């Protein structure tokens, strides 16, 4: 399952005040607790102690997390305490009840505006998430005989979709997958991503080979950029096919980083013939050359975008994925049984290595079952 949405929700809980998102539950406690503490302190201390300056903070604090009605109740309680004869909260000349009453009214207005804004924001976010998930739906745990796990991190702040794209679909003769990267990143690339994924989902059903699928994606970009001579619309992609009748994977690369074969703690970068990127009009005329790789029981395939391989440390050195991944698997062989944990471990290592990653990042792990093996028998899924 792709974890970007969960990570974004965690960030919203941490930075709710700056993001304008609904506050976390703990923010509701300070206003009533502050009022209670003031009352208790006033009851047990001499009458000469004046805490009325603190009660003025209660209504604004309430407006941060409560609605207008609750804020009005707390504000009214503050004004009532100031007015109680003999209680001693406020003395003539040391407090201004009219000022605090005015602050309470402003707090009620602020709470009303904030509540309406939060409601509108929730609606907009819900629609935006639905639209983005329609473009890149959550990765299923299994498609046909292939177990799937993945991680997607969009470079655009708070976005669920960027310039990377992926999909896994069941075709007439097996399972086909694509992972790619369009020109640019962020929200500006979402339209191109949607067009490519639509073309891929159609081609999976009616193209006999993955070379034909690549040609369909290439034609889609050529057609989309035909009306603009300066469009320069292109994308890189790698396509994989897991046939039902053989324990192999067929791979085609269109200018994209090759997948990695994980066999035990051994990590091998597949030597896939480099084809031209999509959108140049070449894939249909000179199809990219296909690589067929035999698979053994327990083999995993890791496909990724260049957001991982091109991450750099402080000295400008690229992230050495094969070497560091092999070291991870030697240190913790159980990662091979939990592909989702494997993607999370690699992502944590990339962030620790580079400090921050400013490009879209996608990683997908495929765990194919042996030919003829039941779809529900693969480990970890």
From TrEMBL:
One of its GO terms (molecular function) is phosphatase activity. Pfam families: SpoIIE. SMART domains: PP2C_SIG (SM00331). This is PPM-type phosphatase domain-containing protein. It comes from the Bacteria. The chain crosses the membrane at residues 51-78, 98-115. Residues 141-368 form the PPM-type phosphatase domain. Keywords: Hydrolase, Membrane, Transmembrane, Transmembrane helix. InterPro entries: Bact_Sigma-Reg, PPM-type-like_dom_sf, PPM-type_phosphatase-like_dom.
């Amino acid at each position: 399952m792709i974890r970007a949405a969960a990570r974004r929700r965690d960030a919203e809980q941490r930075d709710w005040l700056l993001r304008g998102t609904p506050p976390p539950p703990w923010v509701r406690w300070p206003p009533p607790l502050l009022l209670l503490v003031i009352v208790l302190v006033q009851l047990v201390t001499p009458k000469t102690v004046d805490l009325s300056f603190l009660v003025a903070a209660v209504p604004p604090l309430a407006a941060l997390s409560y609605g207008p009605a609750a804020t009005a109740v707390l504000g009214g309680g503050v004004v009532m305490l100031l007015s109680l004869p003999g209680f001693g909260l406020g003395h003539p000349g040391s407090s201004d009840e009219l000022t605090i009453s005015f602050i309470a009214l402003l707090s009620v207005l602020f709470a009303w505006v904030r509540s309406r804004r939060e409601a509108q924001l929730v609606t907009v976010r819900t629609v935006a998430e639905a639209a983005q998930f329609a473009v890149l739906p959550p990765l299923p745990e299994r498609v046909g005989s292939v177990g799937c796990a993945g991680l997607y991190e969009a470079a655009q702040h708070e976005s669920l979709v960027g310039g990377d794209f992926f999909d896994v679909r069941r075709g007439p003769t097996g399972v086909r997958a694509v992972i790619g990267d369009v020109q640019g990143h962020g929200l500006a690339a979402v339209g191109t991503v949607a067009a490519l994924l639509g073309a891929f989902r159609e081609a999976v059903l009616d193209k006999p080979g993955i070379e034909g699928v690549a040609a369909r994606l290439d034609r889609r970009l050529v057609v989309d950029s035909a009306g603009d001579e300066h469009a320069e619309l292109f994308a890189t992609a790698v396509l994989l096919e897991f046939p039902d009748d053989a324990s192999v994977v067929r791979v085609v690369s269109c200018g994209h980083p090759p997948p990695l074969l994980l066999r035990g703690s051994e990590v091998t970068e597949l030597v896939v013939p480099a084809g031209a990127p999509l959108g140049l009009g070449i894939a249909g005329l000179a199809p990219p050359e296909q690589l067929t790789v035999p698979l053994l029981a327990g083999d995993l395939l890791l496909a990724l975008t260049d957001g991982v391989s091109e991450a750099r440390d402080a000295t400008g050195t690229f992230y050495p994925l094969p070497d560091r991944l092999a070291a991870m698997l030697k240190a913790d062989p159980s990662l091979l049984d939990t592909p989702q944990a494997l993607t999370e471990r690699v992502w944590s290592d990339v962030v620790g290595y580079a400090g921050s990653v400013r490009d879209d990042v996608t990683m997908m792990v495929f765990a194919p079952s042996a030919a003829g093996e039941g779809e529900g028998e693969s480990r970890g899924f």
